[in-house]
Amino acid sequence: MAGIDGERQRPALGIVADDLTGAGDSAVKFAEAGWTCEIALADVPALAPGTAVALVTDARSMSDADASGRTRAAVETLANSGTDLQYLKIDSTLRGTVSAQIGGALEALSARAPDAFALVCPAYPAMGRTVECGRLLVHGEAAVGRHGEAPAVPGAVSVTLGDAAPAREADRLRALARESRVLLLDAASDADLDRVAAVAEELGPSVLLVGSAGLAAALARRHAGCSVAPGAPTALQTRSAEGGSIVVAVSSTHPVSASQVAALGSHVVVITAPAEDVLVDGVRSERAAAANVAEAVEVALAAGGVRALVLVGGDGALAVLARLGAHGVRVGSAVVEGVPAGTVRGGALDGLTVVTKSGGFGHPGTLRDVIDRLEASDHPMKKRTE
């Protein structure tokens, strides 16, 4: 979009994410490229160019009907707030109600653009997730879903972009979209994702971009040279407790989370939900685990001396922030790849540094790396707020 004297400005951006950690790992890509980004947990204000807001639908574990409706409502909310561009953030391994979310988002977008269709690309090459010949691969191996089958996007047409100019490729995709409103694009590198972002820009408001943090990063790079709107909000200041504890709150039961917690030192306060305490009809309840973790975090914060909060698992992260009355999280920068840091806005946590991480994300030393960066004098949040 054009700004002063015809100079391009960053658009007002809306992100719809199916869990809180996903909202953070996509929003941080735009924050690092110059947008003022916030994960909104309360009302969404009117957006100016160069600002971005992420809404969390919590749709990943919902029924298809609920996931579709929640996603449709989020897209409508962001559109009414003045977004120029919307991004639907899904899991990079296609977990959850992906098709239902796409359907709900397209329903909302079609009210403004009747020919709307979705470009889906969950690839995140930096984390080993690629899409090749319509197949999702993780470190070169076929991804496997919860029930043992390869995850898929039902009804999607698989597409590989060619070397033609973006405008020509956009015309080809429009033609394909007459057969299917959902196109699954191959991408095995960041250069492939950059090509997807360039073609999407040619398609304009009729396209819904759907992907993980990988495609979000490509979209952010596409607008990196744009100007910032005058009067754009500045970063929040962090609240610090020098020498205080770093609290790691883990609601995820993913084996990756367990290995990461095991690698932490004893000087870190770790909060988890014991399996026996969160059984519902004999089965572990993720929501019960999240509620228990949130209650324990509230107790830890009341005792004081907390320097930063690391939330592992989307359900728990949302439960903690909601319990303590947060209005949102101002997203700053990544502590390590795929793990964003920010500052809490509103409630009992106002101004506190918070890090969010998906439970299944990273290697066994990822949480240890996060703690090391937070303890270092030059960690990213200090750089942004001093």
TrEMBL record:
Residues 13-142, 167-219 form the Four-carbon acid sugar kinase N-terminal domain. SUPFAM superfamilies: YgbK-like. It comes from the Bacteria. Keywords: ATP-binding, Carbohydrate metabolism, Kinase, Nucleotide-binding, Transferase. Residues 265-367 form the Four-carbon acid sugar kinase nucleotide binding domain. GO terms for molecular function: kinase activity. Belongs to the four-carbon acid sugar kinase family. This is Four-carbon acid sugar kinase family protein. It comes from Gryllotalpicola daejeonensis.
